[in-house]
User: What shape does this take?
Amino acid sequence: MDDILRREERIVLRLRGLYAAMGYRPYKMGKFEEYDFYAENRRFLESGSIITFTDTTGRLMALKPDVTLSIARGAAARPGGTLKVYYDESVYRAPDVDAGFQEITQTGLECIGAVDAYAMGEVVMLAVESLRAISPAFALDVSDMGYVLALLPELGLGADQSAAALRALGARNVPELGAILRSAGAPEALSGLFCRLAALYGPLEELLSELAAAAVNEGMRAACASLEGVAEVLRGFGSPDGVRLDLSLTGDMEYYNGLVFKGYVEGVPSAVLSGGRYDALMRKLGREAGAIGFAVYMNLLENAVDGGPGCDADVLLLYGGGERPEAIAAAAEEIRASGRSVRVQREGEGACRCRETRHVSGEGVPDNA
Assistant: This one.
């Protein structure tokens, strides 16, 4: 059965099993939801473009642009307890201005409610194991936005200067960041620390002590404690490898807070996994609750190096046109009975992806090409 599934389908099955094994329940989203809700929270979406239409009652509806928003709204409407769900859904967005609308397939999970140090570590562990299920060559970059946000007031920057500094940090542009801090008259020692953060990258456990030693206030120390808690849980699960500290990771502060992370696998040039805490969104929706989750972008995995495009069949069986149909069928059945898949087509119809090519002989017996 596993042989006939596409690589992405096999990965989805592994991920579902992984999440279910940790007590997460499946979530199914409706195709259409009212547009107003997504319009009010447009900044939470990775793309601002939403596909809309008017239904038979005259309401303006949206073709699901985001799964997390839908889950968060449901959790806000039913407070009490901790919600742990996973999903496998398609969302519809326009990632680029000139790209047109695209279907984006996602598999992910959300944990909403009592999000403590263990819960954060569990979600990060599941992110690590999700990447490992895709490829043995992976990296999960993590950060805590609280560390940088607690440092900014110490620098004496204005609102515009702070925004510019965060953009430079996100781009790892140390020269530009230094220029911004100098023009703002920021203290030299703290400016040097901020610039060092932009270049800081490496194994989480190795860099935590350096990060803690550089903390100058309680907010920064709290962020370090948060990251240390995640590291402890990862050690408990035996999943500390492949996790890197990267303080250049930032998110929309209107919605995100604290821990943020992105995951990468060999052969894919962009992040295939993205997640973090979004308690601020829950407050905006009227519930005081912790919230953390991530999504794996399955559509990005189609041409990963370790998988590549799959084969159409094990054997390509070619016939010239003069053979009897019964003989062609018998030759195909002989291959199928051996446990291999077979694609039958006339010679000259064009190439296809098969591991072996054979020809039907005049007697109907498949000859090796």
Summary: DSSP finds twelve helices and 16 strands in the chain.
